[in-house]
Design a protein that fits this description.
single chain, two-stranded antiparallel ribbon, about 120 residues, 2,3-Dihydroxybiphenyl 1,2-Dioxygenase, domain 1
């Protein structure tokens, strides 16, 4: 068991070796397979990108590499997925809300949805 500080919050983590018999369920998201069972954390835009660069520098193996979805549209978000040492899927996400800081400059763009 370990206790860690993470973004001002305490995490209590119980380690159990990864089980090799568990099938991973995925769901397609924009042509990428994201784990269905996961724990997610929403970070600020700047912290997300700094964290992503730190993970890349440590050669973390991503399930879905850090990337930006809906770029330039309302709902713009950055996301990434990877597994912890026990095989738990982790999702880190950030929403680019900077356009709401200056509402007089807000330009709403319509998002187009593609049928699958």
């Amino acid at each position: 068991m370990g206790r860690f500080q993470f973004l001002g919050h305490q995490l209590v983590i119980h380690y159990k070796p990864k089980e090799t018999t568990i099938a991973v369920q995925t769901k397609p998201v924009e042509g990428k397979d994201g784990p269905v069972r996961r724990v997610g954390v929403v970070l600020s835009w700047d912290i997300f990108h700094a964290f992503a660069e730190d993970l890349k520098s440590k050669n973390i193996e991503f399930v879905i590499e850090p990337y930006v979805r809906f770029e330039g549209l309302v709902g713009e978000q950055a996301t990434m997925f990877f597994y912890d040492p026990s095989g738990n899927a982790l999702e880190f996400k950030s929403f680019n809300l900077t356009e709401f800081n200056e509402p007089d400059k807000l330009e709403v763009k319509k998002r187009e949805y593609k049928s699958v």
